[in-house]
Amino acid sequence: MVANKTNPATEIDSVDPNELKAELVAKYPTKVGRKRAKQIVINRVDECGEVPEMGANARTIPGIITQRGCSYAGCKGVVLGPTRDIINLTHGPIGCGFYSWLTRRNQTRPDGPEDANFMTYCFSTDLQDEDIVFGGEKKLRQAIRELYENFKPKAIGIFSTCPVGLIGDDVHAVAREMKEELGINIFGFSCEGYKGVSQSAGHHIANNGLFNHVVGLDNTPKEGKFKINLLGEYNIGGDAFEIERILEEAGITLVTTFSGNSTYDKFANSHMADLNTVMCHRSINYVAEMMEKKYGIPWIKVNFIGAASTAKTLRKIANYFEDEELIERVEKTIAEEMVEVEKVRLEVKSRCEGKTAMLFVGGSRAHHYQDLFAEIGMKTVAAGYEFAHRDDYEGRTVLPNIKVDADSRNIEELHVEPDPERYSPRKSEEALERLKAKGFRFKDYDGMMPEMESGTLIVDDISQYESEKLIEKYKPDIFCAGIKEKYAIQKKGVPMKQLHSYDSGGPYAGFKGAINFWREIDRMVNSKVWSYLKAPWQESPELTATYAWE
Amino acid sequence: MLLRHTTKEIKERQALAVNPAKTCQPIGAMYAALGIHNCLPHSHGSQGCCAYHRSTLTRHYKEPVMAGSSSFTEGASVFGGQANLLQAIDTIFTVYDPDVIAVHTTCLSETIGDDIPQIAKKAEADGKIPAGKYVIHANTPSYVGTHVTGFATMTKAMVDYFAEANGHKVDQINIIPGYVEPSDMEEIKRIVTELGLRSVMFPDTSNVLNRPQTGRFDMFPKGGTTVEAIRSSGNSRATIALGRLASGPAARALDSKCKVGCEILELPIGLAATDVFVDTLRRIGGVSVPESINTERGRMLDIITDMHQYFYGKKVGLVGDPDQLISLTEFLVSIDMWPVYVVTGTKGKKFEARIKEITRDVPHEVKVAAGGDMFLFHQWIKNEPVDLMMGNTYLKYISRDEDIPLVRFGFPILDRVGHSYFPTVGYRGGMRLLEKILDALLDKKDKDAPEESFELVL
Hints:
The structure holds two protein chains of two kinds. Chain A has helices at 8-13, 17-26, 30-39, 71-80, 94-99, 129-134, 137-151, 162-167, 171-182, 199-213, 239-250, 264-268, 281-295, 307-321, 324-352, 365-375, 390-394, 406-409, 429-437, 464-474, 483-491, 510-525, 536-539; strands at residues 40-42, 86-91, 123-124, 155-160, 185-189, 227-233, 253-259, 275-278, 299-301, 356-360, 379-384, 457-459, 478-481, 496-498. By secondary structure, chain A is of the alpha/beta class. Chain A has a domain at 71-196: Rossmann fold (3-Layer(aba) Sandwich), CATH 3.40.50.1980. The relative contact order of chain A is 0.14. Mean pLDDT of chain A is 95; it is low at 1-10. Chain B has three domains: 25-162, Nitrogenase molybdenum iron protein domain (Rossmann fold), CATH 3.40.50.1980; 173-291, Nitrogenase molybdenum iron protein domain (Rossmann fold, 3-Layer(aba) Sandwich), CATH 3.40.50.1980; 303-453, 3-Layer(aba) Sandwich (Rossmann fold). Chain B is 46% helix and 13% strand. Chain B has 17 helices and 14 strands. In chain B, α12 (291-311) runs parallel beside α17. Chain B is globular, with a radius of gyration of 23 Å. The mean pLDDT of chain B is 98. At the A-B interface, α4, α5, β3, α6 and α7 of A face β1, α2, β3, α3 and α4 of B.
């Protein structure tokens, strides 16, 4: 029984990562093995913090049983999904819209009963074979008219699925035409499932669309002294609510989140913020970059996953604004929140210390959640992302060295210039220098690997086969991945926490989130349910005595 | 309100689907393929299709759902997916070693016109299909049919690829169970065995999607129909197909390919449909029905007679798949409930006609929509509410907004367990459905009753 083993250190230390890698690679056909070898790397952090090159954002090998999804999922499902008052119209056969309907557990809180919320609905053009043969533009136009007639939304986003790109429907032309006809904002996303190599392409496409069609439409100054946007937070299980609570407590004004608990109007006004804070670097760094270029809003990397990380993030935001009052209020917030956090942390730590975790998920979560585990004394023995790029592993310093391959080249890179009227650097050159001299860093994502121990195994786009092998070798106390992996892992007797949508529970962000997460992990790694796997007669099958029947 | 934009006023829609009562063909093909022993379903398209189908089936069953993808990129979409499928076949047989790879197509690979048999032939010529292993396929473009027809097409592919008649009849009956739960498949097999008959059932997802927790993960679990068994179906005495839409094509294919005669029945949900199933087994098998089955039937009937007062005249709204809805509607009518709204996303005039026929004596207008959606269903309810709804988990949003009890039935059920373990087919399944209906109705009655008429004994 692996879940309650007593001495994890010796078991992990007995695994030679080089041998394990060789074993993993050897299972594949030769060419496949060579490709996988680039994505299975043994971490080594040198004195300067340099790490080995990680193979990432490469094509998945057909048939390998990957965790990855598609561009449509990244665009419609992840980035645009959590906004409540934009109607998301899937242009394609019914499946794509159906599967992405309410399955990601994004929460939202409309301001009142009259406030729009379309997140509980699924809208699709439900293309049929005649539409594939004769083209789907006519049906798309009609569907948009019917949407307007029935729902009167402020904005409609059109999401292209695979066949739409192949039959050549021009969703952008239809969007422009219908925008003119109906007088509401309508925009298209060419996020066909075959674009790119994973969800990541869809994130980029979504970022471009939001930046082009929504951000900057409303110049009304937002009240508040310290105004920020939170980027790459999707309010799964209520994470954004907890972060909103903390920011309010600390006296920081949130203009919008991209895109947890968000609205169209908040996006339109988001360029009025004075700082962009980036949670999930992978899915949203493009918007941060483009807003900096066009409007002069600097961005910093933050992390609200983990109590210490949340405190660090708050301090970083306060330091950016260089305001004593804010710094003081932030410290007061942290001090108040940490009382309960520390109590729970120590209690849970006493039961979890020394246990081990593996995280193979997402494009930032496999990194962020290591903090939460570390805070209760649990070690991450192997990790990897599902759809990240090299910079998410090795840090943004590798960006100039990343070769752009054919799959990435197909995703449009917007050319952004400073806005002639609205570009206004939020910090003077002098202020920037002053901050930097104090050790403050902008656009500062160091990636996952520099923060992980040398000798740990990092696997990108892990396959079903590799997951099983890793579990057999390392015998972790908990495994974190997605819903498709969940029950195969649990059948092996290892508890599995789903870290895309959490399956149930949350929030796990911020201070209260940390408490929730630790309680959840405590429940999982210390549960007695894993001790029932063998029936008494399976534990000791030999007969020692028999009853004599009369 | 969760569905705050749903209005009473119904405006005609020609192009827009809102809250669909169906999903696409490939997921049905994947589910069917999981009912072959040692088989890995394979999705020939973008990764997203496979990821979505696996996720949805996983959430419905809380079980591992393994499948491969051809992982199309833009290049494959332009130049064709042959190289991807060849690579997939090689990778899958090398790493996972199934007996069968069951390929289904997607909207992407169908739009570009990939020829799966030709690619499979090439894989064979290249030596990528080991001896005694198979690659089978079903064409399941997502812009045709629904998840139900996808299931039917993959089930028919099992016949096309494997069934053989060698001239020596075997004393067994083929059962094609339809797009039902693993628990239902298990129950159907039990009934057949109870009658003393031997059968081959395919597909069979029992012990695949309701397997026990043992501390061991098997890539290919114990369940599923073996290739050998499917092959032998060509020599069986007869075929009983349950559900015209899901099982009809495979049954007819067996008839024309191997000259095995078939009876296409409605799914054995409820009293009358189960009676027909058992009686057909008796007739074809030349056996008499054992007392144990009579007892089961009698118990089910006992619940109906004992609790009839709570069923009588209750209006029910149903959303689901055609084969299920036909039998369910018949069942509800037979216990004097009024199925007043019946909605499926799968188009079909025969379906509408059959529902009209079953409900002709219901003393209330009955609205039927084949090719309808849950938005329309909700609008009907806004105009005239019902006492009970039966359908998949998505109905819980309507249930909460309108305060109407819901019995979860069909696909997908994402928020409760039970459907994979406890059947709704046969007499025992009927008893479970009756229990669920009564629980829902009586819980509501207990919750809403004024204190003075709140009752201990119901």
